[in-house]
């Protein structure tokens, strides 16, 4: 992880943003501040307002209240100089099927860079960057899903933007393409681009984002590094133990569960007949205490694991939904 945020210079500052559709409030006094030079994760379940927030930041949508500043300037639909500094990689692949890979990149680059000579060099750079040089004469219909996603990225970054929005860029791609895309985003960031990244895949967000904002119902719920977010929730450790005889025999399982739930560090304990799951607060010897209790009750223990909370646990506790819902 490159921690290279440079002081407090702001790339995007959103303050008290309100967006209504009739009676529905899509953004409810939403705040966000992205620093220049960081990869910033924006997470929320479907319908949380992520896409609406991004469209307001890009001045593609009008809003009812609040302000949006990009690199210190208010952005409006006609802020063309500011918009030239922004790149967008949308969730749905947006390319022209009748143009080749190279022609697609050139077309999108031409929206920002009118000079043909300059563009020629930028298109070549973008092709090399996403590893599509060998496919430059192909039409999009001949590309695999992963290569199509890479083309989508090349079209959004060819004009060398300072700020890039990636909206779910790895949906439905193979692991190899996913790694190539994530490494590419980190390379763009190292070259100086500020990145705003939305994803359904928690492990990706944890891998590449400097800071993460969790939103739901159009509101800012929590902000921090992955470790800071994990420290905000009660769950500090999740212990899983395979056993077919909790408490030593069939009738004893409930009594053992009650004893486990009575331990001061235990938040909750569940047993499905084969696996026992114990959620604990942070503690140095939770596992030892749980095992001692089970041993005293005569439980035979099979496979055992203990893990720290994940971003998904944070998400679940803060929003009441798993991100993939």
UniProtKB/TrEMBL annotation:
Domain of life: Bacteria
Keyword check for Nucleotide-binding: yes
Primary enzyme class: hydrolase
EC number from the UniProt entry: 3.6.3.25
GO molecular function, one term: ATP binding
Domain ABC transporter: 12-242
SMART domains: AAA
TM annotation in the entry: none
The keyword Transport is annotated on this UniProt entry: yes
The name this protein goes by in its record: ABC transporter, ATP-binding protein
Organism classification: Bacteria, Bacillati, Actinomycetota, Actinomycetes, Bifidobacteriales
């Amino acid at each position: 992880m490159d921690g290279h945020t440079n002081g407090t210079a702001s790339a995007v500052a959103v303050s008290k943003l309100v967006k209504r559709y009739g009676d529905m409030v899509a953004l409810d006094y939403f705040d966000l501040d992205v620093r220049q030079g960081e990869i910033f994760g924006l997470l929320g379940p479907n319908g949380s307002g992520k896409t609406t927030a991004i469209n307001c930041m890009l001045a593609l949508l009008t809003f009812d209240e609040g302000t949006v500043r990009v690199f210190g300037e208010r952005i409006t639909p006609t802020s063309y100089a500011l918009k030239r500094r922004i790149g967008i990689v949308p969730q749905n692949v947006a390319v022209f099927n009748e143009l080749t890979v190279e022609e697609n990149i050139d077309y999108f680059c031409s929206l920002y860079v009118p000079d043909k000579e300059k563009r020629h060099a930028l298109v070549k750079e973008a092709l090399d960057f996403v590893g599509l040089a060998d496919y430059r004469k192909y039409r999009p219909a001949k590309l695999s899903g992963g290569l199509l996603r890479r083309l989508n990225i090349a079209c959004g970054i060819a004009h060398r933007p300072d700020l890039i929005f990636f909206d779910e860029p790895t949906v439905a791609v193979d692991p190899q393409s996913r790694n190539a895309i994530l490494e590419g985003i980190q390379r763009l960031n190292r070259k100086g681009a500020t990145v705003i990244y939305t994803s359904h895949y928690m492990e990706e967000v944890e891998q590449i984002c400097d800071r993460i904002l969790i939103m739901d119902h159009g509101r800012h719920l929590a902000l921090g590094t992955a470790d800071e977010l994990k420290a905000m929730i009660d769950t500090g450790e999740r212990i899983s133990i395979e056993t077919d005889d909790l408490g030593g025999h069939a009738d004893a399982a409930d009594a053992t569960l009650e004893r486990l739930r009575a331990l001061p560090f235990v938040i909750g304990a569940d047993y499905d007949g084969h696996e026992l799951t114990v959620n604990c607060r942070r503690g140095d010897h939770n596992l030892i205490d749980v095992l001692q209790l089970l041993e005293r009750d005569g439980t035979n223990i099979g496979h055992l694991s203990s893990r720290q909370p994940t971003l998904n646990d944070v998400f679940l506790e803060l929003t009441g939904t798993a991100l993939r819902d």
